[in-house]
Specification:
Strand order of the largest sheet: 1-7-6-2-3
Helix content: 25-40%
Radius of gyration: 19 Å
Largest sheet: 5 strands, parallel
Number of strands: 15
Oligomer: single chain
């Protein structure tokens, strides 16, 4: 398995380099600086209140020149329905949001997270996934986020978000990138892999999210903590591509099997989805946006916890 995954990573990297018109899913500050003046490029800063020191006021103090600002938590990238937080909004709502930012179907979008901690990469990954769900593949993430841009000594601007004309953005729903509750139920009896992106204490049931009705994980899932892919250097947090093979092999995942990533509200899971789908070359990866917030709502759905002191996994019904 480790040789296969390593080969997939090499092939994915080679294809990205061979296609000069194809932007890789992850770029660095040097790449963005060299491409910043492209007429079709939109820098989308998604810092929000869940970041360490990231929100609209932080953006106004300092941001990448020409960047457009949209709050990940406040502008409608996710929504709550029927008591479940973090769900994908309707396509029409997302079309209005994206078009309202002046982003059209022909634009290349560079998503910029805060880069100040392990959680905020998930903001960029979730917005990236949203663009891909809408059929917009001309999208990438700035590794290290705005903190990495500053650490690289690049120019910064201050003031309001770049004002772009409202345009008509049209999305085409890519249903295969979304895992429904029904598919997750079926995955427990099929060959699909369920991947829990939460920290290990959530996976074992020692810690419970306020968004979930009970602790534990979906029975049969594999633990692949999103934070294992991230590391800090030069006062910024980066996704470490060198950790992918080891972490994925540790979770004993099959790159050829349909894989479904989940967490509490579909935020941390976006990092796992991004790593597996866009960097590790897995053939078919979906994100379950309902995640544990939805799964744990019904007491008839089983949960799996590790009984303390025994290291043994037990199923229980909440």
């Amino acid at each position: 398995m480790s040789r296969l995954l390593a080969l997939l990573l090499i092939v994915a990297s080679s294809l990205a380099m061979a296609d000069g018109d194809k932007t890789p899913p992850l770029v660095d500050a040097d790449w963005l600086d060299a491409n910043l003046n492209r007429s079709d490029l939109v820098v989308l800063d998604v810092r929000s209140g869940i970041d360490n020191g990231g929100d609209r006021s932080s953006f106004q103090k300092a941001h990448i020149p020409g960047a457009v600002y949209s709050s990940y938590t406040g502008d409608g990238w996710r929504e709550s329905r029927d008591g479940v937080a973090g769900l994908l909004p309707p396509v029409a709502s997302l079309e209005r949001l994206i078009g309202g930012l002046g982003i059209g179907n022909d634009d290349m979008v560079v998503i910029v997270p805060a880069g100040t901690g392990v959680t905020d990469f998930g903001s960029a990954a979730r917005v990236y996934w949203t663009f891909r769900v809408l059929g917009h593949d001309a999208v990438t993430i700035l590794n290290g986020g705005f903190a990495g841009w500053q650490a690289a000594g690049m120019n910064v601007a201050s003031g309001q978000s770049e004002q772009r004309d409202v345009v008509n953005f049209e999305g085409t729903l890519q249903q295969d990138l979304i895992a429904s509750l029904g598919e997750v139920k079926e995955a427990r009896d099929s060959q699909a892999q369920l991947v829990d992106a939460r920290p290990s204490d959530y996976f074992t049931g020692e810690t419970q999210s306020p968004a979930a009705k009970a602790p534990g994980t979906i029975p049969g899932s594999r633990s692949l903590p999103h934070s294992d892919f991230l590391g800090q250097r030069n006062q910024a947090w980066y996704l470490n591509e060198g950790e992918i093979t080891a972490r994925v092999n540790q979770a004993e995942l099959d790159p050829g099997a349909r894989t479904i990533a989940f967490c509490n509200t579909g935020h941390w899971a976006a990092t796992d989805w991004f790593v597996l789908s866009e960097l590790a070359g897995f053939e078919e990866v979906a994100l379950y946006d309902g995640s544990m917030a939805e799964w744990s709502q019904d007491s008839d759905r089983p949960l799996q916890v590790a009984k303390k002191g025994l290291g043994k996994i037990l199923d229980f019904f909440n």
